[in-house]
Amino acid sequence: MDPLLPERNNLLTERMDDPACDRELLFNTYRQFSKINRLLSGWKQIYRSRIKPEILRNGGKASILDIGCGGGDIILHLCELCSKDSFDVQFTGIDPNERAHQFLSEVQVPENVRFMQTSSQNLADENLKFDIVISNHLIHHLSAEQLDQICRDVRILAKKRVIFNDIERNPIGYAVFKTIAPFLFKNSFIVEDGLTSIRRSYKKKELEQGLPNGWQVNRQIPFRLLAEFKTEPK
């Protein structure tokens, strides 16, 4: 029986977060992220409505940081979209996970893309700056203390805006994903971890309460939340 998901279950852990998880299944998961994110995460629309206008205001140039980049598919997708628009954008993806770094070391990337095994706190300590800071499916992995730290980091790192894209916990979304995903994703952690992710994720009001002042949370279809922070006025 599917849970009604009245409360966020942050005690659950995803298989891919286990340092001892199967390497082949983990790497297959990274490879399959591209498909699931293009189907459900809505980054093409986020690019059109939020990222592209910011780059245009910046004269067609920008630097973008992806925190918790995993298999790197979001950066590569955005890089493709920026290239089609003839923008000059430098992309940096970071993830502290050693095996994510191992996977990314085997991925061929354009010259304007780099991946680093590090954390947002390390970059903030170096006082590095990026025009736009993003994340995808990161927030639901974090404890309240880790979320606070990330929010402090991005206040230093982001020159213009922050866009955190994540799942909104919903029993209908859970049931639909549980029914359809097993037919689309095999030999990976996508299905099991996807269901865990939904149970760990926030509802809109919960996330609003968990973020510092100045952040805005907006719903996106299907069953998604965008947490945004702007460092500069329009």
Secondary structure layout:
Layout: H1 23-40, H2 43-57, E1 61-67, H3 73-84, E2 88-94, H4 98-104, E3 113-116, H5 120-125, E4 130-136, H6 144-157, E5 158-167, H7 171-184, H8 190-200, H9 204-210, E6 216-220, E7 224-230
Parallel strand pairs: 1-2, 1-4, 2-3, 4-5
Antiparallel strand pairs: 5-7, 6-7
Helix pairs in contact: 2-3, 7-8
| Computed CA radius of gyration, to the nearest angstrom | 17 Å
How much strand?
Answer: 15-25%
Low-confidence stretches: none
Tally of contiguous helical segments: 9
State the distance separating the first and last CA atoms.
Answer: 47 Å
- What would the CATH topology be? Rossmann fold
Describe what this molecule looks like in 3D.
This protein has one domain: Vaccinia Virus protein VP39 (Rossmann fold). With 234 residues, the chain is an alpha/beta fold. The mean pLDDT is 95. It has helices at residues 23-40, 43-57, 73-84, 98-104, 120-125, 144-157, 171-184, 190-200, 204-210; strands at 61-67, 88-94, 113-116, 130-136, 158-167, 216-220, 224-230.
